[in-house]
Amino acid sequence: xxxxxxxxxxxxxxxxxxxxxxxxxxxxxxxxxxxxxxxxxxxxxxxxxxxxxxxxxxxxxxxxxxxxxxxxxxxxxxxxxxxxxxxxxxxxxxxxxxxxxxxxxxxxxxxxxxxxxxxxxxxxxxxxxxxxxxxxxxxxxxxxxxxxxxxxxxxxxxxxxxxxxxxxxxxxxxxxxxxxxxxxxxxxxxxxxxxxxxxxxxxxxxxxxxxxxxxxxxxxxxxxxxxxxxxxxxxxxxxxxxxxxxxxxxxxxxxxxxxxxxxxxxxxxxxxxxxxxxxxxxxxxxxxxxxxxxxxx
Amino acid sequence: xxxxxxxxxxxxxxxxxxxxxxxxxxxxxxxxxxxxxxxxxxxxxxxxxxxxxxxxxxxxxxxxxxxxxxxxxxxxxxxxxxxxxxxxxxxxxxxxxxxxxxxxxxxxxxxxxxxxxxxxxxxxxxxxxxxxxxxxxxxxxxxxxxxxxxxxxxxxxxxxxxxxxxxxxxxxxxxxxxxxxxxxxxxxxxxxxxxxxxxxxxxxxxxxxxxxxxxxxxxxxxxxxxxxxxxxxxxxxxxxxxxxxxxxxxxxxxxxxxxxxxxxxxxxxxxxxxxxxxxxxxxxxxxxxxxxxxxxxxxxxxxxxxxxxxxxxxxxxxxxxxxxxxxxxxxxxxxxxxxxxxxxxxxxxxxxxxxxxxxxxxxxxxxxxxxxxxxxxxxxxxxxxx
Lengths: 297, 386
Known about the structure:
The complex is a heterodimer. Chain A is an alpha/beta fold. Chain A has ten helices and ten strands. Chain A has helices at 27-39, 68-81, 95-99, 103-111, 162-167, 182-194, 208-212, 218-227, 255-258, 269-292, and strands at 43-47, 60-62, 88-94, 117-122, 148-149, 152-153, 173-178, 199-204, 234-237, 241-244. The interface between A and B is large, with 39 and 39 residues.
């Protein structure tokens, strides 16, 4: 599992060319900047349609939206065939390419335990096309396809638990990370580079435009998400070894995460209580798993 | 060389072995299925450095070979009918990216499971070379030639080799297997262009790819590269014959008993073999009709048909696929090829073998009689459902 690092240990080198196509305060652009610091230059970056399409100083290859898992598979197999296994095949995908349209191919790549790294910048909706709901959109969030009205209270169903779904493929590594916790993110990518097989990191990446908050607050919101138990930071090795990487003595209330975002502005007290209950119950389960150091999937 | 009695799917798998493909990927679908089994057996036997990725669907298999080809491996995939339709989206990326992937398409219609050519015909816009072959030996030989043509620096275009399901895929015929040493000398190792490895890449090749430049230019370059297949395929057919002692016309078309013919039947795939029997019979009866087997539908042998037009009075086009509301693709393209000529032969359209319907020797005799009658000025309906 990953080893804690300090902020001073974050590499100085910059492999992303900022701002790329990102907006002000873009969490996903920051996820790219941090992840590629840790990945280093010996990487082929694989892209599929996503927002923003980060620009790096490493070679980039791309394919169809639904082909993320397949193109990493092809690259990894070919690198082996030509004797260049030193090069990392890295997919830098969005939540659509991971949770939804790209899910089948990624699930199959995980099941085959392809020697690949998948980094998902999860901004919780289809931001490339203008904030339409995705399988990663949380319950009650307003999106451009979940407007608020007499028949709609935002998205009616919770976000898919994609880290656990991939962990249940019994792959070497699945982790969650947040742009609000750069040391943890870098430590996890650094660890992923030391092992082989299917490795995945889901990075919650706040989107000021879609989530509707002040672009200056990206880090605050990312931190509140982790500190309130909405987006816990953990890692799962081989579908069984479990570790919580950030354990505050007490969780902050979920309102600290929900209130600054206009996508949750319509929520009633009952709806907020629903989210609070879910977050608390989930956190307790994770604490138990962390205490035992394992999961039963 | 050696001989073996083998089914068409084994001939395809044998070509994969002879070409020393490095990464193959496929998803089983009738009637292509047994290729995936032969490839899995070859992987297990470990006779050469070969990786076979058993995937969860055709879309993935196409993207796997696309990425592997980009990185630097010689690749192979194969599918049939609905599987090919499922691949459509990434196929256009393989074409646009100019990746010399080679694919066997074991024809299966999509109204039912029997073979017709509607599967590969539906992929005309993906920017691949499309070839149709007649028998198991031609499957093996054409796949080997497809690598040579696709990987040629003048072409760099993926090629699909189509053959009829069941009639070829699961029917055994004697096949001559070339020596590995001869193939190795004839087919040089694959090199990607450009390289995408971090230490070899040209940074100008991995920009975001949109914005700037003439958006139409990539289409023009792509179109011209596909047209180049004609020249390179003809050269390759010559070098193939020199090395292995067999040839199939000039690669684009294979004329059969056309020396004294006044009219030609144009057919593709296994029914071209049936047509050969009909031509033998008709010529024995003094009827001056021969066969021009169409091997390359994309690019289309415009030059060859224009040249044949000088000697012929009529073409009977047998289409084994149809675009409903538009008609047979070979018929349409043939007439378009001849439009500018001063001498315009009579052309008749025959719809045959759709949905796997049997096309027999006497059907081709009927086709031959009709085109001979029409060429002599007789009244014949232009479109016939055989």
